[in-house]
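Blinded run. Sample ID left blank on purpose so nobody reads anything into the name before looking at the predicted structure. Input follows.
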Amino acid sequence: MIIIIIGVAFLVGIVGWVYVALKPPASKICGTPKGPPITSPRVKLNDGRHLAYKEFGVPKEMAQHKIILSHGYDTSKHMHIALSQELMEELNACIILYDRAGYGDSDPYPSRTAKSEAFDIQELADKLELGTKFYVIGCSLGAYPIWSCLKYIPHRLIGASLVVPFVNYWWHATPSALLTKSFKQLPKSFQLAFGIAHYTPWLYFWWTKQKWFPSMVDEGMFTDSDLELFMGVMDCPNNHPEKRRKQGEYECLHRDILVAFGKWDFDPIELTNPFTHNKGCVHMWQGSADRVVPVELNHFIAKKLPWIQYHEIPNAGHLLVHDDESFEAILRALLAG
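Blinded prediction complete.
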């Protein structure tokens, strides 16, 4: 009898340990009694959530061109913008940067999907009175909301730019051989992390915290030019990790990965041209030396969708958006149509 009791107690202890190990910590919601303070202007969405934002360039009420920029993984609306105020005034443009759900001062969204990201952008535009149509730019992992905009709200867009856009290695219509080949070019730690996010998302939080195996180790993913640009980004005082992750890593970083590499309702190569009669344009920008996203796969997608204008910058890495010459070219091309 004693042995049975000890066995049951041991089993209960194991179950309790597993439950604690798999369960993410409670979120620290901005503006709640135990949460961090709200430090940015925000709009309230129809479902009660808030999105934080900031403006850059010409005031939106006066700007001819209104652009919403979707930031990448582990950054925020305070990401470094490699553009001068003088250029923005020359172009008569305003960029709205916003914290995607769970980042910075924007409320978390446990039910977020690739589709919901597009409608967050649409509501943000409406709440800020940007007009019936606007431009969108997505950087790296922040490009999946732009693919979603092209799918679900193309009628609201004047133009779109996908800058070093991430890929989902489980898109259902893209050739599996190409996806597999590109996936195997990633470091093993990235393959494991993305595979866990896709196949066993309930295990992802534990995976990021366990110490037995490396979790998404850099392993030379960035070029020398990337690292040089990264040092400049680090000088941005408002973009430090404690500010963009202040509501908890699970709500921003983990959910971002889980949505990006989860199951989607569509595959980008199934999209049709959202702009007929030459009334808009989609651009894709890629660095030829990018080690973070597979150049070959993005080139294939652009070839399958001839209405995308593909630009490949020789010898450039992944951080194009932080290079002043590259980002100026990205912006000028977008506004030119």
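Unblinding after everyone has recorded impressions. The CA atoms of residues 321 and 327 lie 5 Å apart.
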